[in-house]
Specification:
This protein has a domain at 91-154. The protein has nine helices and ten strands. It has helices at residues 40-47, 72-78, 94-104, 110-123, 139-151, 169-184, 196-202, 220-225, 230-239, and strands spanning 2-11, 14-24, 29-33, 55-60, 63-64, 79-82, 157-161, 188-192, 205-210, 213-218. A six-stranded mixed sheet has the order 6-7-8-3-9-10, with helices on both faces. Helix 5 packs parallel to helix 6 (169-184). The protein binds adenosine-5'-diphosphate and magnesium ion (MG). Residues 2-236 form the ABC transporter domain.
Length: 240
């Protein structure tokens, strides 16, 4: 589904991504771990062109996204993104937050978008919150709405950038449970997280990134019980 070759990103003189190669198969759950500042967010943002890579290739469903003339809006519809901050529209209801893009961008009929939004709210466990405003919801509930909103565009891949890092500890589990459900249903996912339990249980593959390169990758079993790279070992010693 996604084939990334020799991806580079430089900000000024700061080379943040120093040649990333990665292949993501349909249905795969890839979890990226690594210290703060290692380039994880920049990498995810490059995938849907929120940042323009300096060099390399991102081949998504057969198209190199860095080719001239690629329709970025169409691409973004196929890649859902969930951030640490939920960024819901405060003056719109939960339902409106979810239907706005399908209606405005995809030109879906109101009734269809609404029915789909209700199905997605049920999926994330918020069936009864469709008429609520974001400010009346907990952080965990808002993040689940943000996931439903991303899913409403019917993406082929979901990118998560530390989706639980801004949450109070007691709300982390409910968001991870929704993500685990998506993974079980075959969604292709790239997840940056510090939740090592999630990585261990849900990831098909774990990638350890540091200083703008992939230092090590493998199954959760390999990475967590038998890391080979000293940097991986040292990182895991700090976080586990
Ligand atoms: P991580 O998500 O792993 O913590 P980031 O991708 O956010 O790391 O950041 C990696 C490096 O890139 C940091 O040194 C950061 O300061 C730099 N960086 C990220 N975004 C920008 C930007 N828009 N402009 C300049 N530097 C940036
Ligand atoms: Mg980050």
């Amino acid at each position: 589904m996604l084939n990334i070759e020799n991806l580079h990103k430089t900000f000024g003189k700061n080379e943040v991504l120093k040649g990333i190669d990665m292949t993501i198969e349909a249905g795969e759950v890839v979890v990226i771990i690594g210290p703060s500042g290692s380039g994880k967010s920049t990498f995810l943002r490059c995938l849907n062109l929120l940042e323009t890579p300096t060099d390399g290739k991102i081949i998504f469903e057969g198209t190199n996204l860095l080719d001239k003339g690629v329709n970025i809006d169409q691409l973004r519809q196929k890649m859902g993104m969930v951030f640490q901050s939920f960024n819901l529209f405060p003056h719109k209801t939960v339902l409106e937050n979810i239907t706005i893009s399908p209606v405005k961008v995809k030109k879906e009929a109101d009734a269809k978008a609404k029915a789909e939004a209700e199905r997605l709210l049920d999926l994330v466990g918020l069936k009864d919150k469709s008429q609520a405003y974001p400010s009346s919801l907990s952080g965990g509930q808002q993040q689940r709405v943000a996931i439903a909103r991303a899913l409403a565009m019917n993406p082929d891949v979901m990118l998560f950038d530390e989706p639980t890092s801004a949450l109070d500890p007691e709300m982390v589990g409910e968001v991870l449970a929704v993500m685990q459900g998506l993974a079980n249903n075959g969604m292709t996912m790239v997840v940056v997280t510090h939740e090592m339990g999630f990585a261990r249980e849900v990831a098909d593959r774990v990638i350890f990134m540091d200083e703008g390169v992939i230092q090590e990758e493998g199954t959760p079993e390999q990475i967590f019980t038998n890391p080979e790279n000293p940097r991986t070992q040292s990182f895991l010693n700090k976080v586990l």
